Amino acid sequence: YLDSELTPLLENKGLEVHEWSSLIVVMQDMIYSSGGLINFSNSDMREAVEHKYITTEKLVLLHQDLANYFARFELNDRKVDEYPYHLERAKSYASLQAFLVDVRAFDLMYPKHKWDLIGYWRTLEKETHVNVFEQYKIALHSTMISDLI
Known about the structure:
By secondary structure, the protein is mainly alpha-helical. The chain is built from 8 helices and 2 strands.
């Protein structure tokens, strides 16, 4: 995912490919990529970078940018992996709720990400006082009606 996903995200922020690829080369001993995620090899390094460059507000905005990026994906495993995570971190609770009650998203998410799904609903219950059962009941009712039409 490094080239196919990172390039448009960074270009959207005004960074050219040669700028960030040079940085990746210089930092190759300090970072690693696994499953499409780039991480620091050392937690102390990660914490130092976060402390120096990333405020809580910036982090929320970064997660919103990532959520917006994954929102454009067709519904697939990659979207199910990333989109709700970034919505939750961006505090985009209405969008998170809309995604979670989508029956097609639920079908993809539940087998592999059951505990994440439960965690997202707990966050929604805590932050918005939404009732999970009521939301699924409404979603299922709407789905059944649209299937009849």
